[in-house]
Design brief:
Blueprint lengths: L4 E6 L8 H14 L4 E6 L1 H4 L6 H18 L6 E5 L5 H10 L4 H5 L2 H10 L6 H15 L5 E3 L5 H18 L7 E3 L34 H9 L17 H14 L3 H7 L5 H27 L2 H30 L6
Parallel strand pairs: 1-2, 2-3, 4-5
Helix pairs in contact: 3-12, 4-7, 4-13, 7-8, 9-12, 10-12
């Protein structure tokens, strides 16, 4: 019996993944490759919806890919590639955009949030249609499940709507994907402002822990993480969001329930919790940082790994696009 297919992508818009990326996405991907037919990509087409520097984009794309392999993605067990190396993504995005309503696209909260910072007039059309490209990424591979955070649920619903709409209009073409969410790591918040998600776009540097960060810096940030004044190590989203975030991170990294951590640190105070958590994070990220460094030292080999992934991805994408072209009524090329 074939295994369910899972697809996800990650943007190369920073010099390192952060703790939220790792716990909310990358580590899930590593686990899923053991039970699923896994397809993962570095979504560089998505990365150019905002202003960027070309040389920096190329470098960050390699860094992102290296981190994925270093974190445990196996090119023999998963398909790992760069989005722009598979042109069917962009072609399918155009087809899906032609069955997407303007009002439907304008309701996407991510566009509202990002365009609000600089004004809708200066936002690119690419940013506006970003969720449609995301939908194309997913349905191109007959994806059964998509590991998503809560902030991506709306985009996945659009994907499902578009797949169903296309199937109704043109005949059965796409698999309608379902979300794959792990609630216990669905929300990692900023260390300095636990009311917001840990994010490169909204967090201050002191609120983010990077996967490739040096140990001394990681320790310093965790020791300075915002907590509260009563000193009780207890999870409470409303009254103690900072402490709750630290406990959630600790629990996710060591696989111990938050309730067990509360018991272990009862009466210990925040200093002990933070000191121990800092070592847990350093121990988790140290090997990934070292493996990433080694992969980046041999760019030719890294590029070869990505080219192999793109070849495998195209073996799936090309038949899907042939089916789409036929069903939508395009004249076959001879």
């Amino acid at each position: 019996m074939p295994r369910p297919r899972v697809f996800s992508g990650i943007q190369p818009t920073a010099d390192s993944f952060h703790l939220g990326n790792y716990l909310g996405a990358v580590r899930q991907w590593v686990t899923l490759q053991e039970s699923h037919d896994a397809v993962y990509c570095v979504v560089d087409l998505h990365a150019i919806t905002m202003q960027h520097k070309p040389a920096q984009l190329r470098q960050r794309t390699r860094v992102a890919a290296a981190q994925l392999f270093a974190a445990g993605l196996d090119p023999e067990a998963s398909i790992v590639f760069v989005q722009s190396h598979v042109p069917e993504h962009a072609e399918l995005e155009w087809v899906l955009s032609c069955i997407t309503g303007f009002g439907e696209a304008s309701r996407m909260t991510q566009f509202k949030d990002k365009s609000a910072k600089s004004g809708a007039e200066s936002a690119s059309v690419g940013l506006f249609t970003y969720p449609i490209l995301q939908a194309a990424d997913i349905v191109l591979y007959d994806t059964d499940q998509v590991p998503v955070g809560e902030d991506q649920r709306q985009h996945l619903e659009l994907t499902r709507d578009l797949a169903q709409r296309f199937n109704r209009r043109f005949g059965k073409t796409f698999v309608v994907p379902a979300p794959y969410i792990l609630p216990e790591v669905a929300k990692i918040t900023d260390l300095q402002d636990p009311s917001i998600k840990m994010s490169k776009s909204s967090s201050a540097p002191q609120g983010i822990i990077d996967v490739l960060e040096e140990p001394a810096s990681i320790r310093r940030k965790i020791m300075r993480a915002v907590t509260d004044t009563d000193g009780e190590v207890r999870a409470d989203e409303e009254a103690k969001p900072g402490v709750t975030n630290l406990l959630r991170i600790y629990s996710a990294l060591v696989g111990e329930a938050v309730a067990g951590l509360e018991q272990r640190y009862a009466g210990s105070g925040y200093g002990t919790l933070k000191t121990d958590l800092a070592e847990v994070v350093v121990d988790a990220f140290g090997p990934i940082r070292e493996r990433t460094r080694k992969l980046l030292e041999n760019e030719a080999e890294l590029d070869k790994m990505l080219a192999g992934g793109a070849d495998k991805a195209r073996r799936l994408a090309v038949p899907t696009m042939a089916r789409v072209r036929d069903h939508v009524g395009f004249l076959p090329a001879r």
